[in-house]
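Kindly inspect this today.
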Amino acid sequence: MSVGCASLTSNANGKAQVKNICSYTINATVSVDWDWDPNCQSIGAGRSATFTWNSTKGKAEYAYEC
């Protein structure tokens, strides 16, 4: 699922990868249901970033720009 330019490309307990599907740099993170969302990261056009959190808190729900 994606919101704006942030596309959730892989998702496991405690770790997710977000790809910027737009042609400009964005700031993005993921929504984690039972934990604080990881800090926003700058992601260049067409690039990906990895986000991590406590794996006991489950998977990310979705990626979003911030």
Observations:
- The mean pLDDT is 94.
- Residues 9 and 38 are 16 Å apart (CA to CA).
